[in-house]
């Protein structure tokens, strides 16, 4: 049997403890939980599966046919979790069935079990497979009963999850602890938050409940639910990550303990101070350890000794009281000491989101101090929460050796838009795992909400059991076959997912790597809705007409080719989901028409009304569409919330729960503090909330035209807030059309009757105004995918630097060229050889997946000497210091000015200074800079002995000097971290200077030739070295600032390899005099210096203006010093 990686001793201990009997959780005898899973999900085969625990390290299994028993299956495994994964491997690979968020289809396993034949082995590549974000317990599971938990836990166990977060019931223990230190019920009640917002109270972001105090009945019921959840987790071989005392306390604790060190936390997301600024008991106060001991002791009494891993987040979107390194070190040191005092085997698990969300505060030295307070590397586990788009493990050098887990966040707020990057999920975690000195220990899912896009989460958990990157096309094919489990699955269903997986689930833009939110869910506005990027994007990174439309056509076609698909719940879900996405995208189109109409001064109120009607029609028909599937219903969310109400005040309690449910998905706060963050495309929510808001907005626009009034964004925002507050306080079912979910058919009854997608979409717009149907349904010539509408930044919204820079591509003129340059540079940075299949003549060296994954684009940077004289030198130094470029070409002045600046200052001056006067005073002007001539004298004094030493070495060893080796030697000799060429020497980045003698350095060499003749510098070897570097590059990019020698030399080197793949020029030169300096990239294409079809941009601008911004938007985003505006 082949076994996997060695499991850290703490995990073995935790897994072992999960099998111990305890006061709170009754323990199954080893494999009882897996047998119970078979009984739940495959009741017709309860005796068909045998499980055997075997010795071995890690999580491994072997699946084989039963010996001496026809039709039976044996799963041998080293852990309970491996048993579950082994079972899942059989069910999916041989049985062709699966389990999804929408339900389990494992009971469709054939009566005659397929045989395995040759035994199948499997091993986890990491010890931890983690699941849950703290906020998932509110965005998705706030109102779950154990029935929903049972399905989810089985889904997790079968996919190999063994380290789930377990928050429910936390308040029950916490309240008991607070009572124990003398706090009153009123003190405690004023601190706790409502059922839909408990995660942020646990994080210390908010305190209190704006919908009314948290009922004791809720606290008790969640405690009961937690016992059921933990029992099931343990049965399924999981080690629950349990809560601990974080330090956030009721403000009344300060009164009870006036000498305690309690500080006020920071404000959060614009909430009033009465419900944020949580009080924080500092861990070095003795009271902290006392409360921690009490909490963990009571938790063990309640649940038993089932885990030693504790979740504890102190600064999640909170600022520490101090940034002092010793303070941060002492906070973590005393926090960990309190855990170990309560549980000698405690391991601290923390979400590392803070290091990304507040990167300006969390510099590397602060992170190192905070993490360094925890002794040992296995005593702490960091969740690299957003690894797929904003990994922090790289800048922290694998969290300075602490154990960490590569996590996929992806779904913010439970948003539902299509998005994914399957290629990243199959490559990046394995690359991180195999990095030198990597301390990565797991794969994890940390989505804020579980709403759609299920394939991206399935894939990551499956990749945790494969040591090589999963083949995406094969994976998708198998996944679809199991998801649509019918005989003779039409190829059109597979084709639909081939399109989706290669487009909407192949998003390589790091600026939009998160679920895409539709603007229909956002508060209507004239500006600020479209083309948002970041982790709440509204920008569509794909073309709807070539992705969503054909995929939906193919799915409907499949349902006609095999009508059995109509009874498959997952197929029904997917058709509604894809149609939902189509309508959401079309809404974006018609919004653009409305904005264009309104912003045309000659258009009337009637014209605005006509342009607004299609928006309202789409919303009405979207609501109708969503009504056909039980998984897209607001009423289900509200029903689940209200069903928790019981006791003598049941009606009042139910209304309280409904308010919580409504407020979370709309205003998210009493006054819309996080408005629409957790928005959903659900039937009922679209029809009763989004539609009225857009009706209000379009009516308001009409009235401003009719009355000749200016648009007042404050006024319409106030009206929308008032509507939201009124809506949140309503009761579902009391208004016309608000039907309860139990009356809806479980299987959609809409799409299956349609002859083609055009008929399908037409049926969704019956009764719609002709203009609306024309906008949504017209089969016009597709707008090219490269077409982008013009739009500038909206300063009504607070913009950070990255958001501002991202807006440049939409402004036009040179801003557009600059925006393209940003995208091109980011593509240079992101490209890896593994992005492409091996060429037929690929050398053996580049056939290795790991080598391909590490082979990057070769970036050639060129610049003129004046830029080193300017403050752009520090920008170039940053690139060289952090190895962002592969080679440099510059002029003599670009070399010497760097060293001269190490010897003396260059000063700001003015372009209009009198030249003769400056000459008399010994000042040399470079534009509006001046350099004292003494600096050049200092340079001569410094460089002459080095030239002497080089001549002596040449005579003694026959060394052949080249311009690049001279520069390397000078970089070594300067030994100054303020020098660009010191870092090029340190990082072995070659610097080429064909015109090395064209400047002060040439003067020094000239004078030296008289004093000590014989020094020889060979330029031929350098031209060969530069051209060879270009020739060997698997992909090459040029970034050229200015013109002349540096521009032509790099471009000419590109000719050797048939042209550059990416090119960015920044200069003010024009092409009309025929000079190469001013030539556009297209001229280089004609010479073969840029590949035909390659991406290029020329920005007509002073490099000192735009290059720092270009670096801020590209290279600087990968370090802790990413700038903020």
Tell me the β content: 5-15%
> How would a textbook summarize the main sheet?
8 strands, parallel
Distance between the termini: 57 Å
Please state how the strands of the largest beta sheet are arranged side by side: 8-7-17-16-15-14-13-9
Low-confidence stretches: 1-24, 741-778, 1119-1125
Estimated structural class:
alpha/beta
Overall number of strands? 26
The percentage helix is 40-55%
Give a structural overview.
- The chain is an alpha/beta fold and 1125 residues long.
- It has 43 helices and 26 strands.
- Strand 15 (380-384), helix 15 (397-400) and strand 16 form a beta-alpha-beta unit.
- The two termini are 57 Å apart.
- Mean pLDDT is 90; it is low at 1-24, 741-778 and 1119-1125.
Based on the model shown, name its key terms.
1125 residues; alpha/beta; six-stranded parallel β-sheet; 43 helices; 26 strands; 10% strand; globular; disordered N terminus; disordered C terminus
Lay out the secondary structure.
Elements: H1 9-17, H2 32-41, E1 49-53, E2 60-65, E3 73-77, H3 80-93, E4 99-100, E5 103-104, E6 120-123, E7 128-131, H4 136-139, H5 146-158, E8 163-164, H6 170-180, H7 185-189, H8 198-202, H9 216-235, E9 242-243, E10 248-249, H10 252-256, E11 262-264, E12 279-281, H11 286-303, E13 309-311, H12 325-342, E14 347-351, H13 354-357, H14 364-372, E15 380-384, H15 397-400, E16 403-408, H16 422-433, E17 440-445, H17 454-463, H18 472-483, H19 491-502, H20 548-561, H21 569-598, H22 605-626, H23 634-642, H24 650-665, H25 685-707, H26 713-728, H27 757-763, H28 770-777, H29 801-811, H30 813-830, H31 849-854, E18 858-863, H32 865-869, H33 872-881, E19 887-890, H34 892-903, E20 907-908, H35 915-920, E21 923-926, E22 929-932, H36 933-957, H37 963-974, H38 980-986, E23 991-992, H39 1000-1011, H40 1020-1032, E24 1036-1041, H41 1045-1055, E25 1060-1067, H42 1081-1087, E26 1090-1100, H43 1103-1113
Parallel strand pairs: 1-3, 7-8, 7-17, 9-13, 13-14, 14-15, 15-16, 16-17, 18-19, 18-24, 19-23, 24-25, 25-26
Antiparallel strand pairs: 2-3, 2-6, 4-5, 10-12, 11-12, 20-22, 21-22
Helix pairs in contact: 5-9, 6-9, 6-11, 11-12, 12-14, 18-19, 19-20, 20-21, 21-22, 22-25, 22-28, 23-24, 25-26, 29-30, 29-43, 30-43, 33-38, 34-36, 36-39, 37-38, 40-41
